[in-house]
Amino acid sequence: MEIRQIFVGKEQYMPLLLLADEQEDMIARYLPRGELYVLGDPAQALCVVTDEGGVLELKNLAVAPPYQRQGLGRRMVEFVCERYRGRYHTLLVGTGEAPGNLTFYQRCGFTESHRVRNFFIDHYDHPIVEEGVRLRDMIYLRRAL
Question: Nearest-CA neighbor of 125 among 22, 14, 32, 28?
Answer without folding.
Answer: 22
